[in-house]
Amino acid sequence: MEEKEAKETAVGTVEEVLPNQLFRVRMPSDELVLAYLAGRMRLHRIRVLMGDQVELIEDPYGGRARIVRRLT
Question: What CA–CA distance (Å, rounded) separates 46 from 38?
């Protein structure tokens, strides 16, 4: 079996909370990215608020990013 590729993660700051668990996240390069919560974060009801530092996995095709961890 092939091994899964290691996903590259990035860290950003939540700038805006949008409806349907969407977030606008500012990356360190001053780029704004639209992101959604990962399934495990929804399952465990982890809240993400404005100003939180989050770890996310960017879509390689330029779509939305997935928030996988809340850092602060």
Answer: 10
